[in-house]
Design goal:
By secondary structure, the protein is an alpha/beta fold. The protein has two domains: about 1-100 and about 300-315, NAD(P)-binding Rossmann-like Domain (Rossmann fold, 3-Layer(aba) Sandwich), CATH 3.40.50.720; about 100-290, Rossmann fold, CATH 3.40.50. The protein is about 35% helix and about 15% strand. The longest helix is centred in the C-terminal third of the chain and has 19 residues, at about 300-315. The radius of gyration is 21 Å and the shape is globular. It starts with a strand and ends in a 10-residue tail after the last helix. The mean pLDDT is about 95. The structure holds nicotinamide-adenine-dinucleotide. Nicotinamide-adenine-dinucleotide binds near residues 151, 152 and 154.
Length: about 325
């Protein structure tokens, strides 16, 4: 197949080349959106990532250009208008679970960094400041952690929390019975958030979960709780969360994703003026830690993403059942 790969970085190229099962791949640095959709001409498939835009307009151009397959090299698919793709006869495949450990471990990294302030200690010591002032954290042992969404990543995250001796509360529209048997306490969203010292989001971005964390739900939080989002930026109403940080209702915030990340993440703006005032405000807080959607970014995950993407493509070519098809 001739495949146009959008939003490519050198690391995508490295892993996709290594596991290519014989397809002709063109690596494009630009994201897929309404301005770039025409570049799909002459290809059979497009391979895309989390911030590529696949709305009805883009899909129509892809269809006119003869694209039959969209290969998502990620799990989340909130950026694809699945209904329109189906109507245009374009199959959409994804990598549903490449390495839940990669994201779950990153969520724990954010918690430990925010809590024990190792990022601040690192900078202090380099400047000859060996003081412990304002570095005090809390034991995770015996603390209540609320896990919102206990699918592949949430479940793995629960296993990690178990190792730390946390009390685990969870909210999911489809509770996992093995987790319940293992002692995870399922409840309503309100019950799950109540008294939690840490809240970690692991549900997908859907209409029903858009701005799940807002001024209304922040009221259920224990004052001073920590919020972690490694799922999708749209789960959080950013302005409300900033207000929560200002009042102290939210004690700290760890983000690997951000609602407007498509205009920022994966690129270097170190010499530019950031125009997004919400992220600029977030960066200014001493108790906010932001990473640039790197939860997935481990060697193991990149290998699995490449391997499963080519399995999806090969199954399509062989007219076999597409086990990772969406819609
Ligand atoms: P999954 O499909 O295995 O699990 C999602 C869980 O959320 C399911 O148990 C589902 O029942 C639950 N859920 C659905 N709607 C819900 C709702 N309204 N309220 C509560 N729970 C709900 O997905 P996963 O592999 O665990 O991934 C979770 C999310 O993590 C993905 O959707 C993606 O957005 C994100 N992700 C982020 C990165 C990263 O690099 N930061 C990498 C991979 C995935």
């Amino acid at each position: 197949m001739k495949i146009a790969t959008f939003s490519t970085h050198h690391y995508d190229e490295q892993f996709l080349n290594e596991y290519n099962t014989g397809h002709e791949i063109t690596f494009l640095k630009v994201p897929l959106n309404e301005q770039t959709a025409s570049l799909s001409k002459g290809f059979d498939a497009v391979c895309v990532f989390v911030n590529d835009v696949l709305n009805k307009k883009v899909l129509t151009v892809l269809s006119q250009n003869g694209i039959k397959l969209i290969v998502l090299r990620c799990a989340g698919y909130n950026n694809v208008d699945i209904k329109s793709a189906g109507a245009l006869g374009i199959s959409v495949v994804r990598v549903p679970a490449y390495s839940p450990e990669a994201v779950a471990e990153h969520a724990m990294a954010l918690i430990l960094t925010l809590n024990r302030k190792t990022h601040k200690a690192y900078n202090r010591i380099r400047e000859g400041n060996f003081s412990l002032e304002r570095l005090m954290g809390f034991n995770l042992h015996n603390r209540k952690v609320a896990v919102i969404g206990t699918g592949s990543i949430g479940k793995t995250f629960c296993r990690i929390l178990n190792g730390f001796g946390c009390k685990i509360a969870a909210f999911d529209i489809d509770p996992d019975e093995t987790l319940r048997t293992a002692g995870v306490m399922y409840g309503t969203l309100e019950e799950t958030l109540a008294d939690a010292d840490v809240v970690s989001l692991h549900c997908p971005l859907l209409e029903s979960t858009h701005h799940l964390i807002n001024a209304g739900t922040l009221k259920y939080f224990k004052p001073g709780a920590m919020l972690i989002n490694t799922s999708r930026g749209g789960l959080i109403h950013t302005a409300d969360v900033i207000e929560g940080l200002k009042t102290g209702q939210l004690g700290s915030l760890g983000l690997d994703v951000y609602e407007q990340e498509a205009d920022l993440f994966f690129r270097d703006f170190s010499e530019d003026i950031i125009q997004d005032d919400l992220i600029a405000r977030l960066i200014s807080f001493p108790n906010v830690l932001i990473t640039s959607h790197q939860g997935f970014f481990t060697k193991e995950a990149m290998e699995q993403i490449a391997i499963i993407s080519f399995e999806n493509i090969d199954a399509f070519v062989a007219n076999e059942e597409l086990v990772n098809k969406i819609g």
